[in-house]
DNA sequence: GCCCACTATCGAAACGATGCGATTCGCATC
DNA sequence: GATGCGAATCGCATCGTTTCGATAGTGGGC
């Protein structure tokens, strides 16, 4: 069912003119009753508001106001993939929480714009048809390049979290590489030499079996997702001999399957460096299913520092300031809308030792 | 065409009139090039689109279009409490996923409207100032009554999930009571006689210590939250002697503390019926902390059937069709926007036996 | 070659509110 | 009672698009 914005007749609504007529003032005066600026007698204002109440006027029409002011007061939040998946992703949610908090403070509405819908491809139509003053790229997605031109044409303020690294997008970036390097060195210092890496799928419509075993630095340059690439590179700098497996999808289960493949080798790794926390949880589960005890028999690490209250244990990982990066993105939106030109920033990360890592047996 | 006057932001934009001028047609013809209806030569359309591309016209201004059509194509999703907390709540998220899916299908945008912001009270201003065609109450909140009049005045289509039970709101309701009754009977049939109930806080700004022990039916009528009330009533019908404790907040930790109080009694219950899954997880944790084994020493049940992949075990609970209720709410929005008058529905729930319940020792 | 029936295009009037510049009002002062 | 002045109110153009009714153009039938 596709609805058309055009065929339906406008709802008969009460307008400011009606209020003005009832209150026996001009519409411009009636308007004054609702604005902050301009001078109007308290008596007149009261009369106008009374008239408004009498005929059930709900206040100035937001659309008309927007047309006049050129501002909608709405920020589009662009999500790679589907809204559903984003909502299942603790990293995205933590960022979103920070972003919401900041956007709340500057009194702008938050419009969710998924780049793809559940039932297939999201037409650019929805994206283009929405009255937004600015957009925030909440999660990094390769698919964004296609929609950038249209946003530039609209002269929208653009803020990105971890990308896209494109002209005109103010960025909140994360120091992924150095964080992952610290973590890898920690694992090496524990004594590990045989490590496996479980990485996120680089395919857009990822779903299926895990990829083959590959050398850690195989084809690194061809990975367009900067986040994935830089994290791998950091691991490679410490463990040039590591083996990597690409999970078949982005969900927990894919991580479990991929990690399982690593664990089922004749000579299995003593440490699995998962490229994010969800994959690490999958690895923990794969270990549990095989009676492998963590951290005694296996070290498992993640990345992100997501809040996983249900997990019941504390992952050794690298903590990103997830909430903070949302806040910063929100702040940037505010500055851009106010006419400023905030500069991009790179936020630091912090290694966190949990109870999933230890020396090899 | 520079038109930055004084205070208004300088957003000099390219308009349809500019395109028309360049293509040497009238603006009405230029408009035709972007519409589905109306007749226009393919040649002319091509010329217009070429002109548009040349001067970087990004397509019709959504705000102006909305003003003319009386429709914004945006649905407001109203969240009780803060956006942040909603995002941490698996029940709300599952519902949201279904809702998003349905709203995607009818090509409407999704605007998040939290009733309260992180930093304090949400002014009605934001809510009132947003150009929405309809609103969906995603989660039940006592605070909604205050904003209903304004929505009625705006003649917005209104759809609610589990409330508010108010005139003009089309509802997707859940058969809470009978589901909870089935679950309670199951626990009774297992042989349990001494049961404790952990319930959600009824305070809006809940945070603090758990409430006192109370009889299950103490003051039931004074609980305005229908969901909480009906679930409790159902338990009371099976276990008139049950003791209830109100958690101090809505988070996991509050559930743990409240359940801990029940477990620390001299004679502790053999079963804890938590009023939702998160509280049940809290109860599991309280039990684990005390070396009480579930289900051998204690039966713990929840309500909702939320997807908790990180938990690692399967809660005995009542499954709501969470995704489905979101879908249904979305469908209702579509029908209302199309001029229909869908009727409210009540969705069934299903008892699900997990591995957290068993006979008392 | 004339008239008719289309159809592509155009002009102008909305949609509902805002804000500039002009006008009127109220009132104190001379 | 006339004058001056600030404050309150008003009229009108405007934001960018859509759409209705009017007009010009095209081609076919006879």
From TrEMBL, chains A, B:
Domain HTH lacI-type: 14-69
Taxonomic source organism: Agreia pratensis
Name recorded for this polypeptide: Transcriptional regulator, LacI family
InterPro entries attached to this UniProt entry: HTH_LacI (IPR000843), LacI/GalR-like_sensor (IPR046335), Lambda_DNA-bd_dom_sf (IPR010982), Peripla_BP_I (IPR028082)
CDD domains noted in UniProt: HTH_LacI
SMART domains named in the record: HTH_LACI
GO MF term (any one): DNA-binding transcription factor activity
Keywords annotated in UniProt: DNA-binding, Transcription, Transcription regulation
Transmembrane parts of this sequence: none
């Amino acid at each position: 069912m596709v609805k058309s914005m055009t065929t339906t007749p406008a709802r008969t609504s009460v307008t400011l003119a009606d209020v003005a007529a009832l209150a026996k003032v001009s519409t411009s005066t009636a308007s004054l009753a609702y604005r902050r600026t301009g001078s109007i007698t308290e008596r007149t204002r009261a009369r106008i508001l009374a008239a408004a109440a009498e005929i059930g006027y709900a206040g100035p029409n937001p659309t008309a106001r927007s047309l006049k002011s050129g501002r909608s007061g709405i920020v589009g939040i662009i999500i790679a993939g589907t809204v559903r998946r984003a909502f299942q992703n603790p990293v995205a949610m933590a960022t979103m929480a920070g972003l919401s908090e900041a956007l709340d403070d500057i009194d702008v509405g938050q419009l969710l714009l998924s780049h793809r819908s559940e039932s297939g491809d999201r037409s650019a139509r929805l994206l283009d048809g929405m009255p937004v003053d600015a957009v925030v790229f909440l999660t990094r997605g390769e698919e964004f390049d296609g929609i950038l031109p249209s946003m530039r044409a609209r002269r929208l303020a653009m803020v990105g979290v971890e990308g896209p690294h494109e002209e005109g997008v103010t960025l909140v970036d994360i120091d992924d590489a150095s964080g992952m390097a610290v973590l890898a060195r920690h694992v090496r210092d524990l004594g590990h030499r045989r490590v496996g890496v479980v990485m996120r799928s680089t395919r857009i419509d990822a779903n299926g079996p895990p990829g083959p075993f590959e050398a850690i630095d195989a084809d690194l340059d061809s990975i367009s997702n900067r986040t994935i690439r830089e994290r791998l590179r950091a691991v490679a700098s410490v463990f040039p001999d590591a083996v990597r497996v690409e999970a078949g999808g982005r969900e927990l289960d894919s991580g479990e399957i991929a990690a399982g493949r690593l664990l089922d080798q004749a000579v299995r790794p003593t440490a699995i460096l998962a490229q994010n926390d969800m994959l690490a949880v999958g690895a923990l589960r794969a270990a549990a299913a095989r009676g492998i005890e963590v951290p005694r028999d296996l070290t498992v690490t993640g990345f992100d520092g997501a809040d996983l209250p249900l997990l019941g244990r504390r992952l050794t990982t690298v903590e990103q300031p997830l909430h903070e990066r949302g806040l910063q993105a929100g702040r940037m939106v505010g500055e851009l809308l106010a006419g400023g030109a905030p500069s991009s920033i790179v936020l630091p990360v912090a290694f966190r030792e949990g109870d999933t890592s230890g020396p090899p047996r």
